[in-house]
Please model this.
Amino acid sequence: MTEPKTADIDLIQRIIPHRYPFLLIDRVEDISGHESATGIKNVTFNEPHFQGHFPGAPIMPGVTIIEALAQTAAVMVGVSQDLADKNFLVYFMAIDSAKFRRKVVPGDVLKLHVETQRGGGKVWKFKGRAEVDGELACQCEFTAMMDLPKG
Model:
């Protein structure tokens, strides 16, 4: 069995095209092939969505938590398929069974656990859960189309 891999911010940016203000993960750990991985998001008050969501009571929007889960999944696939520097794109096709159980606020460290339910080819399905201090914040399933480089 191979050792789990890690993607730092440099490798993340070499795999997915997202940049500020929409790069929503800081690190991906425990990458086990294309089966599972854990993303890390350090939530800070300086993020642009907190200006309007909500003034005086900043809460990370649920859709950005799901996007962070999807970015974690994309990096996992990118690492397992050696897609750094290859113009890899990923598109949402579906988000199912999304549930939010806890507010995510500045100062939290969001752990983004993703598992592949169906993979290979263009269409992949993932199960994701986001936690803060071991407490469930969000869970969902999502389907994505992988625009893998030709050749």
